[in-house]
Amino acid sequence: MKRHTLLFSTTALGLAMFALPLRGQQAQDPSGTAGIQGQSSSAEKTDARFIKEAARGNDLEIAMGELGANKAQNPQLKSLCEMIQKDHTAANEQLKPIAQKYGVTLEQSQSWLKEHALSKLQKEPAGPKFDQALATDLMRDHQKDITKFQKAATELQAPDVKEYAQNMLPQLQKHFQAAQQAAQAVGVSQSTISSIANKLPPGVGGASEEQGVSSQKGAGGKELENK
């Protein structure tokens, strides 16, 4: 009788010790989905961060477009600024319902660096130097946007946010190529133009020097003149 009692006690103790870690795991993650939820939360933060950055980028391009439309002396650059202002205003309108869906507040403010760059342009008197500085900044900003949007188009998780990035890419590329042509037209050095164009992601190229000059006389140039 004692032997049976001892055997039962030992077995019960072993089962209890085995069950303790399982109970601890269940208490920490009763559904077993903590890892999945963590990944989902991280993806949502990435999507939200992109939405905010896209809105700020649109705001900056709208401000630069407005400044250039009023102050640029070169007709090609002035037409480009009007197109940029119009397109990025529409892009922000498309972004608003997406931001609202994901609870993202779109702040009408720019980072210090962007404000500083815009402030420098505002202080520059109208003339060739202003046109060159503006065309260079438009190239540089759109190169950064293309890089950011191309990454978002392949890595984001939310389908509608990803679709927004994909749909914006052709427009950003069009703006970059037009800015490149405008930069050549206002006398920005080819070395500066090439250094910015070379930072574009693989598969996304600006017009070469010869293509850029000839395209000012072709369909691209006519499109800007007609706007």
Descriptive account of the structure:
With 227 residues, this protein is an all-alpha fold. 80% of the residues lie in helices and 0% in strands. The longest helix is centred in the first third of the chain and has 38 residues, at 34-71.
Summed up, what is this model?
This protein is mainly alpha-helical and 227 residues long. The protein has helices at 2-28, 34-71, 75-101, 112-123, 128-155, 159-185, 190-197, 209-215, 219-226. The longest helix is centred in the N-terminal third of the chain and has 38 residues, at 34-71.
Features:
227 residues; mainly alpha
SSE run: HHHHHHHHH
Approximate helicity band: over 70%
Strand fraction equals under 5%
Mean pLDDT: 78
What's the shape? globular
Described by strand count, sense and barrel closure, the largest sheet is: none
Given helix and strand content, the structural type is: mainly alpha
Low-confidence stretches: 5-27, 30-39, 208-227
How many β strands by DSSP?
0
Terminus-to-terminus distance: 101 Å
Supply Rg.
28 Å
